[in-house]
Amino acid sequence: MKNVFDYQTEWSGLQNRMARMFDPDSGRTVLLAVDHGYFQGAPAGLINLRETVTPLLPYCDAISPAIGGLKTSLDPKTRTPIILRATGGNSMRRPDELDDEVVTVSVEEMVRCNAIGFTVSCYIGLPGQCQTIESLASLSDEAHRFGLISIGITAVGADPVLTKFVKGEREDGGELTADDKKEAVRYLKHACRVVSENGADIVKTYYCDGFEEVVEACLSPIVIAGGTKRPTKEALEFTFNAIKAGAVGVDMGRNIFQNEHPVAMIQAVRAVVHEDKSVKEAFQLYEEISKG
Ligand code: 5RP
């Protein structure tokens, strides 16, 4: 007996691109973020982008450069999928205006570069929230016509109240209080839901204690950014905790390329993300590879 619904009747380019970015067994991803220069200038570890990226490419499920880094520093023969930074217009020279970000890469440019998707920062709660949410929504609408993946980032800009969540410490360098941690969950839960409701196929945000609540409130799968460079074991710990709490991977930059041993670090992160290794096991792997 045949059922018409047993026949496949359509193909989804978006699903196929997700399958290129996410490991079929773990259903997770290790996305290397190297787009920082679009507003940070030349950050440590990315001065020579080609030199930094080339040894890491074999361990990336995908890589996320800005357009300049892509065109000047990535080998066009690479088979690593590209997620292109699609917004900018800000710089650390005017830190109070980081949330004044606009679309800087067209969907045509994404297709021309053979990107599988793009990232847009949304500055929820800051003056730039409306224009950055609009950038996400309008780019997602146009890009979805080509089956491209839309990644919305909950960006914190220069807001001191928010940056402490990303740094994991108060402005004075002190430990986060219990109230700080509750506020982090409240903010990231709110921001992730807003970004997912405005068209993001994937949301990139930062890990915080109570991350399960953030995952539960978000309509789209979440990957975590690493934020500022932390000690190796600490970075593996928040990666492990984020995966355990429901993140589907990382979109990590500084905690990989600013690590003393970036190739060892990305392999240790992969062990946590794809093989469910413990922090102890991943750190042992890191030490073996870095001493190897
Ligand atoms: C700012 C970004 C980065 O891609 C994002 O923050 C991930 O990088 P890191 O792990 O270094 O925070 O959106 O450029």
The largest sheet, given as strand count, sense and whether it forms a barrel, is:
5 strands, parallel
Number of domains: 1
Low-confidence spans: none
**CATH architecture field:** Alpha-Beta Barrel
Order of helices and strands: HEHHEHEEEHEHEHHEHEHEHHH
How helix-rich are the residues, as a percent range? 40-55%
Descriptive account of the structure:
With 292 residues, the chain is α/β, with parallel strands linked by helices. The chain is built from 13 helices and ten strands. It has helices spanning 13-21, 37-40, 49-53, 67-73, 107-112, 129-143, 160-167, 178-197, 211-217, 232-244, 254-257, 262-275, 279-291; strands at residues 29-34, 62-65, 83-85, 87-88, 102-103, 117-122, 149-154, 202-206, 222-225, 249-252. The strands form three sheets. Strands 3-6-7-8-9 form a five-stranded parallel beta sheet. Strand 6 (117-122), helix 6 and strand 7 (149-154) form a beta-alpha-beta unit. The longest helix is centred in the middle third of the chain and has 20 residues, at 178-197. The N and C termini lie far apart (60 Å). Bound molecules: ribulose-5-phosphate. Ribulose-5-phosphate binds next to strand 10 and helix 11. Ribulose-5-phosphate is lined by residues 33, 35-36, 64, 153, 225-227, 251-255.
